[in-house]
Amino acid sequence: MSTYAQKKGFGATLWDFLTTVDHKKIAILYLIAGGFFFLIGGIEAVFIRIQLAVPNNDFVSAGAFNEIITMHGTTMIFLAAMPLVFAFMNAVMPLQIGARDVAFPYVNALGFWLFFFGGIFLNLSWFLGGAPDAGWTSYASLAIHSKGHGVDFYVLGLQISGLGTLIGGINFLVTIINMRAPGMTYMRMPLFTWTTFVTSALILFAFPPLTVGLVLMMFDRLFGANFFEVAQGGNTVIWEHLFWIFGHPEVYILILPAFGIFSEIFAMFSRKRLFGYSSMVFATVLIGFLGFMVWAHHMFTTGLGPVANAIFAVATMAIGVPTGIKIFNWLFTMWGGSVKFTTPMHYAFAFIPTFVMGGVTGIMLASAAADYQYHDTYFVVAHFHYVIVGGVVLALLAGTHLYWPKMFGTMLNETMGKITFWTFFIGFHMTFFIQHFLGLWGMPRRVFTYLPGQGFETSNMISSIGAAFMSVGVIVLLINIIVTSVKNVRVGNDPWGDGRTLEWSIPSPPPFYNFKQLPLVRGLDAYWIEKMEGKKEMTPAEPLGDIHMPNSSFLPFTTSLGLFIAAFGAMYHVDDKGWALPVLFIGLLVTFGSMLLRSVKDDHGFHIHKEELMNEDDNKGVKA
Amino acid sequence: MKRLANWRLFSLFAIVALVLSGCGKPYLSTLTPAGEVADIQYDLMGLSTIIMVGVIIVVMLVFVIVFFRFRRKDDRIPKQVEGSHKLEIIWTVIPILLLLVLAVPTVSATFKLADVKTMDDKNSKAVVVNVRSHLYWWDFEYPKQKIVTSQELVVPTDEKVYFSLKSMDVKHSFWIPAVGGKLDTNTDNINKFWLEFDAEKSNEAGNLFYGKCAELCGPSHALMDFKVKAMSKDDFNAWVKDMQSVKAPEKAQTALAQQGQDIFNKSCIGCHAVTPENKMPETARIAPNLSNFGERSRVAGILDHNKEEVKNWIRNPETYKPGNTMTGKYPQMTEDQLNALAEYLMGLKVQD
Amino acid sequence: MHAEEKLTYETWPAEPEKSTLEAKNKFLGFWLFLGGETVLFASLFATYLSLKDKVPNTSQPLAKDLFELPLTFVATMLLLTSSLTSVYAIYHMKNFAFKKMMVWLGLTALLGFGFLGLEVYEFNHYVHLGHKFTSSAFGSAFYTLVGFHGAHVAFGLAWCLSLMFRNAKRGLNLYNAPKFYVFSLYWHFIDVVWVFIFTVVYLMGMVG
């Protein structure tokens, strides 16, 4: 299939990707789009650090700075980290459970295009009168007060991309529950699949509150409602609750898949079964569960009273326990193992001290009375960057190197990979370690500048230099990707040689139907078990037969495009523009029309016949 | 991989260097606590840091051993261990115990810091300040003393001072790092808490603490600073008396100041009061009260306190505090008018 | 079993909504979707409860001045009955009785339209009493919660009708049976949400 794709012209390839419902191609789309937004968010981060390198700097204006920090946070969380996580989930999870596809291929594609159009919409704000400037948390009083359309872009863009994430989560849940290969019981699922599962459940229950919060704000800003207008009886604290009921689980939505990726890496490159597998699963579920009980620790200084603060403080501390279990299980997975320091393993190994650092400052923040000092200072900035960069981004970089051969059939260069690691890792600690102290010395977060004479100068300069190192790391990664793609040295099923799970038992990249015959799973680390018995591939669980596959469709694209168009109408109708309402209706018409078309047009998919599969076998023999 | 170890060593040196370089500025840093609240919080920080450093040491110990002992040397397949119940119970139970050690003082401190019962007691003599936050400036009302000041909070040392916080526009957060943690000024409700200013520590900090806004509130969030003058109870009482005695705007002392007062009365007094009485309701106090402007330490909370900066500020406040609510509310001033205004404003003093 | 197969009464499975993999996925996926919807409505309820009777001045009506039992009781009855008729429709679907299913679905839709009509009348009535979407936080919260539910009903009606028209000529098969089933799940969900609205908004509102 891949060789077939290469023969196609650019137009045909583009059309292929616009209409694809194949989870592996959707993974590539997520990787490209997420990577693109990661670069944009990174450039914003660099602007922040340039502005703060010296006191009283005027590299950017105060208003522009607020737009940059808002977009940096929003982009990195919603448009970079989440899609990149989704990229690996899409690329790997169905393979890990031995499935031919996800449960809802069409919904999967729809999820991507919704995210994509939401992200594009949000970023168009830069060219259409200014980006949102109320912070990624967009607290209601400031967001309602904010002039121009910036916050409208935030509200509508996140609404659209949030819908995409939600249906993506449902898709993964059903896939894992219904589509596992014979023998793949829940307690034999690889940990990355488990974390995908728990993450998807979190998405399902955490995104609706955000949706509601965004709807309320949209109604307030665009349709004259009064949810957050105190003079009209409104209450801005409602937004804080809704946002953080979403926002805290969101942190776990990001970090759990990161844990999953690292769990795979530790086991693979230590050549050892994951230590305490069942307690790892238990800890994952427990973290997901507790993640919903702690949102108010983001609001310790809002004035909820000592009872609420005390309860949420203790609940928050409780999360430290399952996280600690995980750290030690990883360490003891390596203990007694045969640890090979490949590039992914560099990231995984460095992740442990980095994440412990982020974890312990998290416990410090959980201590409510002390948090009154940390809250909204650079201490918090340092903490969540240790967790999100030190956890999530390191995992995404590790995952990129680990799964690149599986996704594209060629290995990223290891030397350059290690250069990326070292520059990024050193730069990271340089940028963020010092920020703990800046916070304790009295520097609030989200300040566009600081006055000289408060003791902030040297540390901010160190922090900015660190950011430069991190940028170098990312640039080397880009060069690595280009060089690797140009060379395009093909690799086999198990390029790392230490693969344990099902994805390493099939070709890289896998054929579009993944498994010619569904594999029989005989235990945890199914492929490893077969390898240890001297076999080269999985034992099939079924005879060779016809394979049912879904049809491609352009409708996910048009459904999402309709909402994208409608959002412009909704936004500009407050300016009394005559064209706004018609545009709103045309957009909704496109969306609902596409949905109707999808509903009434039968789509039974198609079958790959047994004979074709056998022919392909012969062809492969020739090509190899 | 040696470099990893070197890097760890280096960061350790960096920490030591930082500790030696000091704990920040005594008038600003949370690490130089100057009052009961900051002390409680500092102790909690210390306790949690000790526990957490302990955890880090244990993790790093295993980490380093793994790094040196279990690198891949040959192609052997290690034993596939499922886990160990004993170990897993250990690293579940010990963290729970550690967290309990931290949770108990946390809960007790949380309740202690929220204890504002005294405020409801009508007969109490405790000093209460109504803090009202506005886009980029702070209004301080002393309801019992019936006086108002802005931008510079004045407090007595060695006693609990109670605060009632509210925002008049968007959400801000009231924070005096060296004296205690912050509390948000909400638009919806009044938040209450207390702080205590230690006389000795205040002295070390030059009796002038820095206060900050800690919640993103718009372009000039970074510049929404205020100052806190801590003084002995006697000095505080004297200051209150002086403030209370100003019933009419201070008379201008020189001809130039007189000229400035005329300009002020024409263009400025619509927003800025120059008497400290709290006659107007809080919603009508739309700009900083300037009664004791001449005795303050900063212009607009951030600029050096001299005539030149006063003139700069009035000439174009937008360059100093983007998005402020003063810009454009008054006519353009000539250089002469600015001189007169600066002269008048710097002469506004209540203490003789 | 394949979705395209032509089936008879005898070969029609006992659980047509779960007899192919696609159908099983749809069944489970929709339940999960309803789980998400539950959280969505829970958030709207919480918002409503915290903004109930929050009006800028005393001239504006409060919950106890607005709500009247007869109107909402009739609306509740209409929707509850429509839930029952949709149960009959699914019963006939499981028995491969296409015509009967269509009749009951038609009844369900009619009752749904009746409910929606009453809601439009009710909103109009409140607006004339000075209780508007833009007049107070209470108004915003009320119309958002109840209106969200109303929009769900409207969407359900459009869904029901398009299913009926699309399949009018071709009868039941394993491809469309899960679609009818999932629609009925949705319809029950809307009904349950309404029971909560009736209790929390109207009954508790009338008490004060």
UniProtKB/TrEMBL annotation, chain A:
> What is an annotated GO biological process for this record, any one?
respiratory electron transport chain
Q: What is this protein called?
A: Cytochrome c oxidase subunit 1
Location comes to: Cell membrane
Say which family it is in.
Belongs to the heme-copper respiratory oxidase family.
Q: Name the cofactor(s).
A: Cu(2+); heme
Q: Which reaction does it catalyse?
A: 4 Fe(II)-[cytochrome c] + O2 + 8 H(+)(in) = 4 Fe(III)-[cytochrome c] + 2 H2O + 4 H(+)(out)
- What EC numbers are recorded for this enzyme? 7.1.1.9
Tell me the first and last residues of the signal peptide.
Answer: none
Q: Which UniProt keywords apply?
A: Cell membrane, Copper, Electron transport, Heme, Iron, Membrane, Metal-binding, Respiratory chain, Translocase, Transmembrane, Transmembrane helix, Transport
| UniProt membrane topology term | Multi-pass membrane protein
Tell me the SUPFAM superfamilies matching this sequence: Cytochrome c oxidase subunit I-like
Q: Which pathway does this chain act in?
A: Energy metabolism; oxidative phosphorylation
Entry-linked NCBIfam families: CtaD_CoxA
Name the InterPro entries for this protein: Cyt_c_oxase-like_su1_dom, Cyt_c_oxase-like_su1_sf, Cyt_C_Oxase_1, Cyt_c_Oxase_su1_BS, Cyt_c_oxidase_su1_bac
The entry's cellular-component GO terms read:
plasma membrane
Ranges annotated as spanning the membrane: 27-48, 68-92, 104-128, 153-179, 191-219, 242-262, 274-295, 307-332, 344-366, 378-398, 419-441, 461-483, 554-573, 579-597
Which Gene3D superfamilies does its entry note? 1.10.287.70, Cytochrome c oxidase-like, subunit I domain
TrEMBL record, chain B:
What Enzyme Commission number(s) apply to this enzyme? Answer: 7.1.1.9
* One Pfam family it belongs to: COX2_TM
UniProt keyword Protein biosynthesis, yes or no: no
Q: Which reaction does it catalyse?
A: 4 Fe(II)-[cytochrome c] + O2 + 8 H(+)(in) = 4 Fe(III)-[cytochrome c] + 2 H2O + 4 H(+)(out)
- Domain (Cytochrome oxidase subunit II transmembrane region profile): give its ranges: 22-117
Query: Which keywords fit this entry according to its UniProt record?
Result: Cell membrane, Copper, Electron transport, Heme, Iron, Membrane, Metal-binding, Respiratory chain, Signal, Translocase, Transmembrane, Transmembrane helix, Transport
Record domain Cytochrome oxidase subunit II copper A binding: where: 124-242
**Role according to the record:** Subunits I and II form the functional core of the enzyme complex. Electrons originating in cytochrome c are transferred via heme a and Cu(A) to the binuclear center formed by heme a3 and Cu(B).
- PANTHER family found in the cross-reference section: CYTOCHROME C OXIDASE SUBUNIT 2, CYTOCHROME C OXIDASE, SUBUNIT II
Know the name of this protein?
A: Cytochrome c oxidase subunit 2
Organism, as annotated: Neobacillus rhizophilus
Gene this chain is encoded by: coxB
TrEMBL record, chain C:
GO CC term, one of those recorded:
plasma membrane
For this protein, the parts annotated as crossing the membrane are 28-51, 71-91, 103-121, 141-165, 185-205
Its record classes its membrane topology as:
Multi-pass membrane protein
Q: Looking at the keywords, is Acetylation present?
A: no
Pfam families the record matches: COX3
Tell me one GO molecular function of this protein. Answer: cytochrome-c oxidase activity
Q: Which GO terms describe its biological process?
A: aerobic electron transport chain
Keyword annotations for this protein, in alphabetical order, are: Cell membrane, Membrane, Transmembrane, Transmembrane helix
State the PANTHER family in the record: CYTOCHROME C OXIDASE SUBUNIT 3, CYTOCHROME C OXIDASE SUBUNIT III
What the record says about family reads: Belongs to the cytochrome c oxidase subunit 3 family.
What is the recorded name of this protein? Cytochrome (Ubi)quinol oxidase subunit III
